[in-house]
Amino acid sequence: MVTPNLECRMYESRYPQVDMAVMIQVKSIGEMCAYVSLLEYNNIEGMILLSELSRRRIRSINSLIKVGRTEPVMVLHVDEEKGYVNLSKRRVSEEDIQICEDRYNKSKLVHSIMRHVAETMEVDLEAKRNKTLKSQFNSQNPKSLIQFTMVTPNLECRMYESRYPQVDMAVMIQVKSIGEMCAYVSLLEYNNIEGMILLSELSRRRIRSINSLIKVGRTEPVMVLHVDEEKGYVNMSKRRVSEEDIQICEDRYNKSKLVHSIMRHVAETMEVDLEDLYLHVGWPLYRKYGHAFEAFKLIVNDPDSIINTLTREVKEISADGQEVTKVVPAMSEEVKMSLIKDIRRRMTPQPLKIRADVEMKCFQFDGVLHIKAAMRKAEAAGSTECPVKIKLVAPPSYVLITQTLDKEQGISVLTKAIDACSEEIEIHKGKLTVKEKPRAVSEREDKLLAEQMAKLNMQNEEVGGDDDSEEEEDTGMGDIDLE
Fold this sequence. Notes:
Helix content is 34%, strand content 25%. It is built from ten helices and 16 strands. It has helices spanning 94-121, 130-140, 243-270, 274-289, 292-301, 303-307, 333-347, 367-380, 407-427, 443-460; strands spanning 21-29, 33-38, 44-49, 70-79, 84-88, 170-178, 182-187, 193-198, 219-228, 233-237, 311-317, 323-329, 352-361, 388-394, 397-404, 431-441. Helix 3 (243-270) packs across helix 4 (274-289).
């Protein structure tokens, strides 16, 4: 009697993808890590380092993780050869948790149905899927026709239209393993196809320690030396990539990663094929705008003018039996609205704060009034889109501040405001000196300025002992006898 295999993962891929949230169950807790099983992938083993449990200082392990607990975590690294999955709890966001829980609940129900059918019909759970499973049901028992369809959309796709990178092009890779003669890597922009870096191509200098040059899990740009499309072979070099190539590659990869994240999320939530979405939406935008990122920036404010130009051809059979080709929108209205919503949520620009530091002095009569007039001239140089404010830090130091979505525009407006202020104060024989030119400042710099101004205000406040005494003591030479 042959017992059918009833153990199988829920999805076609044997391992989860990096940066994907998966549902796990904690099996045991060691000194340095927690061992878990991935419930959606036939309980393969994973590991969470204790440092990846929380962003805060860990006071009690039991408050963060317990044996038997089920929860979503983020995939950091997958080694398919060794069956090794490294996970993190602290890097998973609320949105990832929601998506993971929703997907897991659906998959759990589907898996339960499939397992029950396989068990009752004594068929192998893994070997029989969809049509194969249905045909076996019909051949063994015609009464047991099961109307069950499990269509899992393909969520794996390269970022660009070409399947392989070009020679002499810098690409972003992640190191998977290091051998005796070479390092094996995956090309992150090309759906993780495998590449190889010979150890002689790691550095121009003598190699004293491999670990100082390359580490498993590290992400960095390298140069493509040779591509064999027939064998799927890519040879690369780390020592031949220049600083300029690194800058271009990192900039392109960051844009492509954001575009891919949006496209993948839309494909997952709307249950459409990711490659099909790229074929009719993503790659046409790459061709037209140079990069889909530039098109997505335009979609934030005017989606219809960009998206309505995207079409696809569909073949249909007419009433007279002839095959006709129709041009229809590239995606349905629901997918379109989901894409616009995701783009606006992820790509709406945040206003930048532009600041310049100056010193202004005027020692003429009514110098304070002249300085105030110059400040009003500076503020008048602003616009409704880019208003200028000038604040006193401590005489003679002032700061000019503006907020804008366009960095270049903000710098230009502040420069004009400084010129207008300088012209006005020089009329009254005053002087303006630029200490720090207009620049974009971070929240930290803004906070430091606020703290500095608060400190100076506190020092200028009156304290006990500042007032003159009502009764002053005479400190003369005493009484003088004039006789």
